Amino acid sequence: MGATNRPQELDQAALRRFSKRVYVALPGEETRFSLLRNLLEKHSSPLTQLELQQLARMTEGYSGSDLTSLAKDASLGPIRELHPEQVRNMEASEVRNICFRDFVESLMKIKRSVGAQTLELYARWNRDYGDTTSG
């Protein structure tokens, strides 16, 4: 078993070693919604259903890993507003919860990691080599 973000760079000898090759596409809007909801469960689900739906639309082209990075960055939003001495002397329960604005600000920094050109390479590779079985 193996996984790669660059299947097009594997040579034919390496590809022959795998009896099954599966292309996993980027998550659609519904899956992004579910991933974001699951990521935020440990923060007491601070976003409304409507905000989660909007965020899922705003993250078109984001991978699961990109969404995790986005949520981690957004979770630091409340801390970034504080002065260092406040952080040292404040109880965790006193820090405000994550809000939609934190995600909007994080979207300016955390971009999708897979570009359109790379997606086209993956799709072409999948047409030529993916989803095969031997025997």
TrEMBL record:
<protein>
    <recommendedName>
        <fullName>AAA ATPase AAA+ lid domain-containing protein</fullName>
    </recommendedName>
</protein>
<dbReference type="GO" id="GO:0016887">
    <property type="term" value="F:ATP hydrolysis activity"/>
</dbReference>
<keyword id="KW-0547">Nucleotide-binding</keyword>
<dbReference type="InterPro" id="IPR050304">
    <property type="entry name" value="MT-severing_AAA_ATPase"/>
</dbReference>
<dbReference type="GO" id="GO:0000226">
    <property type="term" value="P:microtubule cytoskeleton organization"/>
</dbReference>
<dbReference type="GO" id="GO:0005524">
    <property type="term" value="F:ATP binding"/>
</dbReference>
<dbReference type="Pfam" id="PF17862">
    <property type="entry name" value="AAA_lid_3"/>
</dbReference>
<keyword id="KW-0067">ATP-binding</keyword>
<feature type="domain" description="AAA ATPase AAA+ lid">
    <location>
        <begin position="51"/>
        <end position="85"/>
    </location>
</feature>
<dbReference type="InterPro" id="IPR041569">
    <property type="entry name" value="AAA_lid_3"/>
</dbReference>
<dbReference type="InterPro" id="IPR027417">
    <property type="entry name" value="P-loop_NTPase"/>
</dbReference>
<dbReference type="GO" id="GO:0015630">
    <property type="term" value="C:microtubule cytoskeleton"/>
</dbReference>
